[in-house]
Amino acid sequence: MGAAVGAQLGKIVPGKQLLFLFALLMIGVAITMLRSAKSIAPKPAQSGKTMIAKTTPVGFLVGALSGFFGIGGGFLIVPGLMFATGMPLLNAIGTSLFSVGMFGTTTAIIYAFSGLINWVIALEFIAGGVLGGLAGARLATRLGKQKKTLSRIFAGVILVVAMYMLYVNLTAIHL
User: Fold this and answer.
1) Tens digits of per-residue pLDDT, 118-129?
2) I need a surface site. Which of 55, 88, 98, 158 has the fewest CB within 10 A?
3) Which residue range(s) make up the domain with 35?
4) What is the domain count for the chain?
5) Nearest to 144 by CA among 100, 79, 91, 99
6) pLDDT tens string 71-103
């Protein structure tokens, strides 16, 4: 539901401004990941009702942000799962894959009905994403035993991409 709401709102914001805001969000997520990498300790088990009370609003927010920014949300779901459940990073990465598929599908449908998809490029990215995902899964599994290293790499990649996006979309500042 959050992805559908976010996708409708995301279509209103001009592209450069959307990318600039997205880069700022990425920096916030990376900083949060770096801070949590310093003290990785699993949270105690929680009851089903407590878990639902925590994951439902976090899931809606992650979905809304994913739909708004037009992304699958993988980099948002992972910290969201870690925050809401205390799940270790590697488990959050694995768990997020299903959510990413659902958010991405919902957002894609909203954009497809609006005629805003270049199908050739979309299929090229899907093919590249599958190949990259297979390679990334192997690397994540290898680095899974080094939790702090995996968190730092994850946050570092997000920071580098965010800085590039800020640089490229600097003209969007005149909001």
Assistant:
1) 889 988 988 998
2) 98
3) 2-173
4) 1
5) 91
6) 756 678 888 888 888 888 778 877 887 777 776
DSSP 89-122: HHHHHHHHHHHHHHHHHHHHHHHHHTT---HHHH
Which tokens sit at 112?
A: 């497809």
- Alpha-carbon distance 7 to 13, whole Å? 10
Q: Are 18 and 164 in contact (CB under 8 A)?
A: no
Q: Which residue has the tokens 């996006």?
A: 165
Closest CA to 70 of 131, 135, 114, 34: 114
How long is the chain? 175
Q: At what angle do helices 119-143 and 89-113 cross, to 10 degrees?
A: 170
pTM exceeding the 0.70 threshold for the entire prediction: no
- Residue 30 has which token pair? 């990376």
